[in-house]
Design goal:
Elements lengths: L2 H15 L6 H6 L5 H4 L3 E8 L7 H16 L11 H15 L6 E4 L5 E4 L1 H12 L10 E8 L7
Helix pairs in contact: 4-6, 5-6
Length: 155
């Protein structure tokens, strides 16, 4: 795993969830894969049109839940995520001033593409693209770290 991916994705989680990566919280943070499995993935940083990717059912469920909480005022499980509203505001301000998402999202190659880190960012990005008044204010291509498992790793 490249140092940049480790630093952007895992350092904060290690500080909050501890180390080694065991237990249900780590299982969720690692997308259901073991750290040994992650060690077999190859990585590339790419610029992708995140709006037109076909996401996994779980990724769609999360984006939909965050979107309903943020844009629809729905009181769901995503509405109570610690600092979620603050994160969305920071992302909005960053996109407004740079046309880019902060950092790089982390995805597992698809289709279907699986969002490992960046659900809040992708939710805001999709909201910008769908809003005709804002759509011109965000670049379609955004930075992503793409993990590619060996063919037999997910079988």
């Amino acid at each position: 795993m490249p140092d940049q991916v480790f630093n952007e994705w895992l350092v904060e989680r290690i500080e909050s969830a501890g180390w080694p990566p065991v237990g249900p919280r780590w299982n969720a943070l690692l997308g259901g894969y073991t750290s040994d499995t992650w060690a077999t993935f190859s990585w590339n940083q790419e610029e992708l049109d995140l709006y037109n990717l076909t996401y996994s059912k779980e990724s769609i469920r999360i984006i939909k839940g965050l979107s309903e909480a943020r844009f629809g005022g729905v009181e769901n499980a995503y509405a109570s995520i610690e600092r979620s509203e603050e994160r969305m505001r920071r992302i909005h301000q960053y996109v407004k001033s740079t046309r880019k998402l902060p950092g790089s999202v982390v995805l597992i190659d698809g289709p279907p593409w699986e969002i490992i880190d960046g659900c809040h960012r992708i939710t805001m990005y999709v909201g910008w693209i769908r809003n005709k008044e804002l759509a011109g204010g965000v670049d379609r291509l955004q930075k992503a770290w793409v993990a590619r498992p060996p063919r037999d790793a997910l079988a």
